[in-house]
């Protein structure tokens, strides 16, 4: 068996090096699960597939043409999601032309509200990356980062990093490197949908 996680970011239209860096970032973020999969001789590939639509297209292509694989979709929600709403239902409602009726709930996942939301769960990693000029006070102190609006996440990162030697947060230049640094345990504790994704993959691997 193999696991394929199609994730929003990089992919088509992006510089190849940037896509590779993003894949490395996600590989690092999911390192514990990748180690467990390797020990069970299970292939676990993380595939940056571009924008939201391209990621869906690649995911559905694999669902239809590689049904033996455990195919997973991971995209930004870009907005809040109701507590009782599944990621699949949310995506089907938001993207009317998508066809997720035959896809199981456990195959659809969200970064709520964006990938950068995860960064706010590990301020220590941000401080380590940006250095002493990082303005920690600009980061919201919400224990559930998924409750922080997308615009607030983006603005807080801009304000916190504006005067650092690395300059203001830049998705392509900084995103993948920060992914490599953040502690997945902290993110899972602060982002319920991230925890759901980890739980599904762990169960698929057969992790105790």
Fold and architecture overview:
It is globular, with a radius of gyration of 17 Å. A 4-stranded parallel sheet has the order 2-1-3-4, sandwiched between helices. It contains 10 helices and 4 strands. Strand 3 (70-76), helix 4 and strand 4 form a beta-alpha-beta unit. The chain is 49% helix and 11% strand. With 208 residues, it is α/β, with parallel strands linked by helices. The protein has 2 domains: 2-114 and 191-205, no CATH class; 117-175, no CATH class. The protein has helices at 16-29, 31-39, 52-65, 87-94, 115-119, 123-130, 150-161, 171-181, 184-190, 192-205, and strands at residues 2-7, 43-48, 70-76, 108-111.
Compressed to H and E, one letter per element, the order equals: EHHEHEHEHHHHHH
What general form does the structure show? globular
Summarize the amount of helix as a percent range: 40-55%
Count of helical regions:
10
The class by helix and strand makeup works out as alpha/beta
Number of domains: 2
Strand order of the largest sheet: 2-1-3-4
Residue stretches low in confidence (pLDDT < 50, at least 5 long) are none
Distance between the termini: 18 Å
Sheet with most strands? 4 strands, parallel
E-strand count = 4
Rg calc: 17 Å
* Average predicted confidence as pLDDT: 96
Strand content: 5-15%
